[in-house]
Amino acid sequence: MWGMIATWRMALEGVTKGCDLLKENGDAGDAIETAIKEVEDFPFYKSVGYGGLPNEEMEVELDAAYMDGTTFDLGAVAAVKDFANPISIARRLSKEKVNNLLVGEGAEKFAHKEGFERKNMLTDRAKIHYKNRVKEVQELELKPYSGHDTVGMVALDSNVHMTAATSTSGLFMKKKGRVGDSPISGSGFYVDSEIGGASATGLGEDLMKGCISYEIVRLMGEGMHPQEACETAVNKLDKELIRRRGKAGDLSLIAMNNKGEWGCATNIEGFSFVVATEKEAPTVYLVTRDENGKNHFEVASKEWMDNYMATRTAPLVEK
Predict the structure, then answer these.
(1) Where residue 134 sits, what CATH number does that domain have?
(2) 40, 117, 161, 227 - which has most CB atoms within 10 Å?
């Protein structure tokens, strides 16, 4: 049995490529890096990699992480500028005995020394998004931070080797140097090949308050199905944040166990995810959540899929 699960529709093409490797008895590490790179390289996905939305100083700072569920090797980078594929830098760092999480200039020096591709990650399209948002904040009193869709994935290969990975440009117009949950083990991601893995997307500042990816893996280890584990963890953190702070930010989690069973839970409307297994071709699901905290899935229609891509690739005009 093999499989992959990932946050958001934007992961579909990457998951498809990753699964092409898994079908041929490929390694979960290679599959997940290939899949994430596909998302990082596509300029129209504005919350990951090339074309990612910039911070308040109009700089693109990227975060990424990689974890091996068999060895517990992990690597992560945060606030990296001008490198094409932060996921590959993170995976390379996972091979080090120490210095596994590098940030900013230190991460960039490591990447340069290791020969990773330098690239200006700020596109003209992202500049237009930035300038339009500055005007919207001033004129409409909108919050600047909308647009923080991390791509997070879990992969399982036929040798029961599991990996988890994330990549994001973080909050749109964030403070320079801000880091969310994505590169933080246990919050943005966690995987154990003897149990399963999980990954998160949403408001990092709130996701970190629950170490929620680790919690989902822990619950699966106690015998919960991935769906039950996701709903239990998300609903508990959502309720606890509301009780203690009056509100909860966006919390969306995906998970897969080492049998290829999967689950997803969210506290928002409009969440989508991609899943593929030996028995199911790469499929986009849309999620709705009822008043009891139960999540329900439906396969995205062709109309929804067409509209998704048309919206993201439509020409932009500076306001």
Answers:
(1) 3.60.20.30
(2) 40
